[in-house]
Amino acid sequence: MTDKVMIGLIQAANDIHGDEPVEVHKKKAIEKHVDLIRKAKEKSAQIICLQEIFYGPYFCAEQKTKWYDAAEEVPNGPTVKLFQELAKELSVVLILPIYEREGIATYYNTAAVIDADGSYLGKYRKNHIPHVAAGEEGCGFWEKYYFKPGNLGYQVFDTAYAKIGVYICYDRHFPEGARLLGLKGAEIVFNPSATVAGTSEYLWKLEQPAHAVANGYYIAAVNRVGTEAPWNMGEFYGQSYLADPKGNFVVMASRDKDEVIVGEMDRKLIREVRDAWQFYRDRRPETYKEMTALLP
């Protein structure tokens, strides 16, 4: 492995009205993102992350059984298989966030990790599931209607180019998993998201760079753009970025455009920061037992 790795992040608007059939959404979005992944490769990206549930709208704005049909098995569903072929062709690592169905009717918000040779390395299931109102007319982040909490813990995947961790959207508000990913050796953590302007926007550029500093790794945050009809629950404000272990923004996308950005991850900087700030050496896990107790 070389010290420098090129990280590609893709943010995009959903181009199809939410009333259209699920299969129409998936077809158009997959076609669009295949093209965007190729553009990221042309910009020398080696690891590429897509946005949360990339192959359709953020359907959690409403509560309808229609969207259960968007779920697929991971890794045996057609979308993962297709992107395994693409990863192998381009020699890129892909973080592929999709809607997962396990068994007959158990659903998770999941990201599959595909290595540069096309092999499936594993998956992360979103652990923290929000259920809060947003916008008007009953819209919200109604995720408990669609997803069970993750049950696979906080894994680190040893890819061809780097050791990576995955968090998904709402997970970013919880520092515990972010620390565990660092303890398990993550050099970079990806957070594919779907988040709109409003209460949490001011945290977008605050929380995750803080995770990068506290844990001595890079953070790659991805957010979609635009508004999505018929819900119009708010503007997905983009601004996908790569932040380094000092909390600096390496590269950042626009607020409102489909965009492919590529930034450099440098292991030398990770080592430099960890040598200077010995947070892992000086942590006191024996004093943190109350963290897992049921306190008031």
Describe the fold and architecture.
The chain has 296 residues and is of the alpha/beta class. It contains 7 helices and 16 strands. It has a 6-stranded mixed β-sheet. The protein has a 6-stranded mixed β-sheet with strand order 8-9-10-11-14-15, with helices on one face. The protein is globular, with a radius of gyration of 18 Å. The N and C termini lie far apart (47 Å).
Could you name the key traits of this structure?
296 residues, alpha/beta, six-stranded mixed β-sheet, globular
In short:
This protein has 296 residues and is an alpha/beta fold. It contains seven helices and 16 strands.
How would the global form be characterised?
globular
Structural class: alpha/beta
**Overall residue-averaged pLDDT value:** 96
Helix content: 10-25%
List the helices and strands and how they pair.
Layout: E1 4-11, H1 22-42, E2 47-49, H2 78-90, E3 93-102, E4 106-114, E5 120-125, E6 131-133, E7 140-142, E8 156-158, E9 163-166, H3 175-183, E10 188-193, H4 201-204, H5 207-215, E11 218-223, E12 225-226, E13 236-237, E14 241-243, E15 249-252, E16 259-266, H6 267-276, H7 279-282
Parallel strand pairs: 1-2, 2-3, 9-10, 10-11
Antiparallel strand pairs: 1-16, 3-4, 4-5, 6-7, 8-9, 11-14, 12-13, 14-15
